[in-house]
Amino acid sequence: MDLELAGKVAVVTGASKGIGLAVTRALVEExxxxxxxxxxxxxxxGLDGVLAVSVDLVAPDGPxxxxxxxxxxxxxxxxxxxxxxAVRLRLDGFLATSDDEFDWAMRVNxxxxxxxxxxxxxxMIDQGDGAIVNxxxxxxxxxxxxxxxxxxAAKAAVLNLSKSLAQELGPKGVRVNCVSPGPVxxxxxxxxxxxxxxxxxxxxxxxxxxxxxxLAGIGGLAxxxxxxxxxxxxxxxxxxxxRTANVTGANFVIDGGLIKTT
Length: 262
What we know:
By secondary structure, the chain is of the alpha/beta class.
């Protein structure tokens, strides 16, 4: 299926690894020109159709700088994928999670999305067309314990913002949707400072056992495996496409069957 993305200009945040890198590759494969922002961009070197921008997206002016690079280079922004984010696993509960830690989670996961969107929307309104896809998380509405309490609150804010903007911007031709992954095979789960490693260090289990224990503790995955970054990227590309031009204000869950309720 042609996703009608050939020649479109897409901005992707947090584009150097994991879901962001997979999204960048998926959009390029569909013919889009991608302006890819991340703190380090080595993994983006040599990718045709990609303008890599080294930028601190948590800095107040970072997201705006990235969007301006896209407009300066290509004259427009058709797609914005707000992917940048991070989580620190909280093993000691709510009372041990300070204001500073909630502030960190909001700055990394919510304000990056807010600022990039604020920078891109005027160009999209001028064009009368645009698609924004925000990578949220099942933790926006699924919190079985306090392990991701600050991250979940920040992602819930992303989801709420997206719903509001979809209503405001829909009449102006701009669509806003979310993708909410469950556990994904990225550094967030499998890296040296990810969920498996953190729980393994605290419990004395090896990483594989720690990962399986955490997944079982939150209800397990019906598919029996983590989602791949490429599977998330496929969903993002579809929502960025004109093929889904009347989809807005939606949140698509991709979690291997983690969420059991309707």
